[in-house]
Amino acid sequence: MGKKYLGIDIGGTFIKLGIVDDAGNVSMRREVPIDRSGSETVMETLMSGIDTLLEDSGLTADAFEGMGVSAAGCIDTTKGCVAENGGNIPNWSFTSVTGPLFERYGIRATIANDGNCVALAEAWIGAAKGVRDVICVVLGTGVGGGIVSGGRLIEGAHGFGGEIGHFPTHADLLMAGGGKWSSHYETFASTGALVRRAFASGKDWPNGREIFEAAASGNEDALEILDGWTDEIAAGITGLVHIFDPLVVLIGGGVSAQEELLVKPVRAKVLKTVTPDMAAELQVKAAALGNNAGMVGAVKYFIDSTAGRQQL
Fold it and tell me: Which residues contact 7 (CB under 8 A, 6 or more apart)?
């Protein structure tokens, strides 16, 4: 193993930790559940997990070049903290992250949005390895993602860039005053939206897994529900393609394993609706790194930040 880094991915339910080398290889992977009762802060859980990982590895913090943290929510990368929108993590908004980690372990840390980290990881060693123009759309309870353009991660002024799930796709709902969130891409393209679509159709399928199972068995109602849902996913991707002109669009999240019922129809719909010039070389495919993507991308973000650049 080359240079070693601590890779951390803070999600809504678990914190994933591991040792990541400078080639993106992961070892000593661990998962620690987040205390959703709020009796223990996320930072307390995180530091306890790091302590255990160090103990298990027989290493001290100074054996590492630093640590990269991937986290849900809007992340202010310049301040190393969570912004007002902390996502689905309890008591996460306005949490300072990199400062407390440095104070405790004496090594530098960076933090970036989880969707951005997934995009970085996939463009570094994953399904878009070596590609300089990539859009990654991560489908889950919400929709996350990241955009690499010209080899650089698009972050914006504060690190908030790439919030794919929060761009409005339904002007009628946005302008009707029904609440800004009701018009957002993730309202229609998330797996939560898929379940809501099934419920609205009178079907008692409580999760996406059951909907996909029914569709795989040939259930016409399930197939129709998936067809409408993939329309929404493809429409958002089509808009992003027209803005950023990527060579590769990746679909991430657990549902990305559904090649025939999700990735394949989304690919066909996107290639049909984007302009022919953009469609000529465009690839739409599943992401490759799975649950390691956040940790790997967080370390890539750290490496690039340390080098004073954000370029692949």
Answer: 17, 18, 19, 20, 26, 67, 68, 70, 294, 295, 296, 298, 299
